[in-house]
Amino acid sequence: MAPPLASNVGRHAGSPEGRNYLARVPLTGMVGSITVDGVRYLGNNMPSFAALSDADIASVVGYVLREFNGVADLTWLTRASLPACVKAAVRRTKPTSNAAACRRRQEVRAMQKVLTLALLGMTASLAWAGPDAGSPRMNYMLHCSGCHGPDGSGSPSSGVPSMRGTLGHFLKVKDGREFLIQVPGTSQSSLSHRDTAELANWLLKTFSPLEVPANTLPYSTEEVARLRNDPLADAPGRRAEIVQHLKEQGIAID
Ligand code: HEC
To answer: Are 207 and 167 within 8 A, CB to CB?
Structure first.
């Protein structure tokens, strides 16, 4: 089941971070699990709606807030409130040729249909690959930053841990290297195994370079393919074990 929009997302409208989050999620889509009102929704796969214009995204977010959540003050919700970093990444995916532009418009119309369905609350588990052929940084922005934040700091109070200064520690204990790929956000994205390996290597280098042990081999496409085919039954449980093993080595992470 998809998480509810009604009487849920409205609580984000009160703070600047919440507003940023509301604008970001439709652009990046969401993969993985999310907890709403104590109910955990596993294996969501909401596609990115980056193909919609900024104005369309703003009006859809406004509609959900007004109709389903009774949020009256929407004056803050303008195209300008969409996060600039995501807009910049999305701009670069814009087609250059006319043929591509035409295809893109058809995609946008298809997306609008899909978005209407999603808003009706029927399902958010639609597999749209999205722009796949990007750099690790762009793939991060489009597929991960919706939950993990543009700078990897996550949202610890909502259960999304920070990756900054922690990720490399996972490589020091049993099952940790595997976990970084098997965790739902990494393993269930629509990215190819090769892009995922590049993304994982980029995450370590970018958010946690000092903690990565010397002589660590980068993830290969084959390793990532094998791990993605071997999903975790209980990601939070496995994470807790790893955190405990790190603690025994004197390394504290949240
Ligand atoms: C729906 C929100 C969401 C999205 C989108 C998401 N993640 Fe996550 N991610 C989480 C949560 C929550 C955790 C904590 C582990 C858990 O409870 O599953 C996590 C944990 C992780 C971890 C392990 C770090 C730790 O401290 O546990 C990695 C690595 C990771 N995610 C990578 C990614 C990558 C790469 C992407 C994009 C391809 C991504 N995630 C997208 C929510 C998300």
So the answer is: yes
